[in-house]
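Hello forum,

I keep getting stuck at the same step: I have a sequence, I want structure tokens, and every attempt I make locally crashes halfway through. Rather than fight my setup again tonight, could one of you with a working pipeline run this one for me? It's a single chain of 350 residues.
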Amino acid sequence: MGKRIAIVGAGAIGGYCGACMVRAGEDVMFIDAWAEHVQTMRRDGLHVTCVEPGNSFHVPVVRALHISDVPQLIKEKPIDVAFIAVKSYDTQWATALMLPYMAPDGVFVSLQNSINEEAIAGVAGWGRTMGCAVVGIGGELTGAGQVARNTRIGNREHPGLSAGEVHGRITRRLQEVVAMLDHAEPCAPTTNLWGVRWSKLVVNAAHNGVSAITGLAGNDRDSDPKIIWLTTRLGSQAVRVGQALGLSLERAHHDPETWALAGEGDAKALAIITEELRAMAGRRNDAQRPSMAQDIMKGRRTETDYINGLVARRGVEVGVDASLHAKVNELVKRVERGELKPSRDVVADL
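Reply #2:
Ran it on my machine without issues. Output:
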């Protein structure tokens, strides 16, 4: 018997990964709070568009539940794996929502930005918590039942997903989860979940907030020398905070030490980072915007407190300067509140 899988939060990442699992024959249900999205999935399935047109696909039949429908699961066989793919600030209630319907050995997998495993474990327990860093997938929920992947599909040499146990061992259940995610994107099991998690946080903290407050798409952001200098300094501070926390950082778009040195003024390192950023334009389309920029465009709350805000807080704790993250965090909030409009001018003083 195959595992029963729940995708909790059928947005860009949850919707994409879940649709790929359905296409591969996995037993998947989607759970979401957007009623129109749920109704559209029930009626029409999920349409997925990709950067490479030949990789676009449609799964015509999916099972979708509104969050208010979840209690009906008490009549069914329990869930084996729940992928939590909601915004970071919704992690705890989403985990609590699913907990009564999980198998005794069922596991929750964070498929999110930031580092939310502790929030999941606070509800479900550490023994039922796993994590997955989304390193190489960029996407957007463009409409009800419509998911767009805006980055090219990775490969075994550069996998876009990295899943791990919180204790760092390779287990049978980890291998099962990796096999599920492998339907969507090459997924690597890791013995270094916390290092991988922080490495992806560095990427998000360098780019997400900047796109949110400038309104720039990824390719435009990474072709502006002044913006590149800002994102490089943000990445540099985040790397140094992670190192001070004792984490073993891994390459996520850039070598972490090179990134740190570039933001500290090393000209050779900055040239390397700049060239790598410009090369990334070939791996995504011009419409690609990171999640926080999408949130601003759609008038939604961002995850800034869990991205730039998190780096700033950890920097204070370990005595490493992350003040630039605190400034970006506050600017994102001002844009959220409508006090500022997204523009390059917003970051002029940074």
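The chain has 13 helices and twelve strands. If your local run keeps crashing, start a new thread with the error log.
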